[in-house]
Write a structure and sequence with these properties.
It is a single chain. α3 packs parallel to α4. This protein starts with a helix and ends with a strand. 36% of the residues lie in helices and 26% in strands. By secondary structure, it is of the alpha/beta class. It has 8 helices and 8 strands. It binds S-adenosylmethionine (SAM). S-adenosylmethionine (SAM) binds next to α4 and β2.
Length: 209
């Protein structure tokens, strides 16, 4: 699993590598563009929304929303990713912080219409994903939605099949989402829906009950 320094090194050619993998429909970025598009289109249904992006990277998703007038806050632990995103979104509030330390204190009293995270939360263990998502709930405005797009499978069996077909590009230290498992961990606390977008990627729609 990449650490902070690894993401700093990847940052300058991140967009290009993702694009090549995506265009070849390869693991792990098959479906990347579609996942970001679905999330973009959902947020574009409203104007001037407050959006929090967790693990914004080079800002592929949030830069487009920023250009359309949405108010962007973001968290990422990579200094280089932050520099690249800041150059594209000078007025966004971008915070360098590690999600393993939870939500930065300065955001605890804030409310967001959308909290998004694409291809970042698989760095948390399944248990930590659930507690992190629960920690995000108080930050949602009324009718707010958490949208998570990530490497994800309907079932553990589908994940295992994908692993066997992609042993060379599979990172055994990452924790990919399994929809059935995450849903059953969250169902008592939130409304959660899941759309499988590609063979290895999907989107979670999570809101307060
Ligand atoms: C694969 S990139 C995804 C970037 C962007 N969201 C996208 O969809 O292209 C993962 C991002 O999450 C950030 N990240 C990974 N682990 C993190 C952590 N523990 N705390 C904060 N950011 C983290 C990385 O620095 C990187 O920018």
């Amino acid at each position: 699993m990449l650490q902070k320094d690894g993401f700093d090194l990847w940052a300058d050619n991140y967009d290009q590598t993702v694009q090549i993998i995506e265009e070849n429909n390869k693991f792990p970025f098959a479906g990347y563009k579609q996942i970001l598009n679905v999330i973009y289109n959902e947020i574009m249904q409203n104007k001037n929304s407050k959006v929090l992006d967790i693990g914004f990277g080079t800002g592929v998703l949030t830069t487009e929303l920023y250009k359309k007038g949405h108010i962007i806050t973001g968290i990422d632990f990579s200094a280089r990713m932050l520099e690249i995103a800041k150059a594209k979104m000078p007025n966004a509030r971008l915070i360098q912080s590690d999600i393993n330390d939870g939500i930065p204190l300065e955001l605890k009293e804030e409310k967001f219409d959308y909290i998004v995270s694409t291809y970042a939360l698989h760095h948390l263990s399944d248990e930590d994903k659930v507690s992190f998502i629960l920690e995000l709930l108080p930050l949602l405005a009324e009718k707010g939605i958490i949208l998570i797009g990530d490497i994800s499978f309907d079932s553990r069996e589908a994940l295992e099949n994908c692993r066997l077909e992609n042993v060379d590009s599979w990172d055994p230290d990452e924790f990919y989402f399994v929809a059935k498992e995450i849903k059953s961990d969250l169902v008592d606390r939130v409304i959660v829906n899941y759309n499988q977008i590609s063979y290895c990627g999907g989107i979670y729609w999570i809101s307060n009950k």
